Amino acid sequence: MLRTFIAIFLMATAVEANADLAYVGFRHGSEFIAAAVEGQVTVTCNGFNGTGSAIYACRDVVLDPQAYDYFVGPRDARGANLELRCTREDGSVRTKTGDYDGPNGISSDSFNLWISTLFQKPLLQAGINTIDYRITADDRPKTEIAKGRFTVKVTRTPVRRCPNAHYSSTDINDCNSQYSVCQRYFEEYRNCR
User: Fold this and answer.
1) Which domain holds residue 125?
2) In this predicted model, what pLDDT tens digit does every residue of 78-87 receive, in sequence order?
């Protein structure tokens, strides 16, 4: 009877441990689509601070299903820090770090996978991205809790075109702000879907 109980307990523990290691990668998977989107917006501004108009050719490359995503990994209460080191198809390397919620097996914040600005750079690039992850404890020196590797594929698709649009505004600044107008335009047209 005691042997049976011990055997069942060990099997249950093994199943639980394997469930914690079932998937490692980004919450939305390992295949993403990079789609170029474009369209034209005309803005007419007439308000208290002046009048004007502008025509913007809006272009972007969006990542589906998400430009930001959480890393999902093994559950271990000791895990507190995460490092993702991405080697891209062209050989370039990008490293990002963040806090890790070990008991729940997920990064505390989402990672920028695609957006490139003056102040932030993306982790991924079109093609095959090989990501080495390392989870450590919050002690000194940092105790390694888990490490491994997964791949993420980013496939480029043909350009998607949105219909032309016209916006009217009571703020002259909208006629001088291509970025905000194009962001609104792509959001409104769901990235030309």
Assistant:
1) 24-192
2) 999 999 999 9
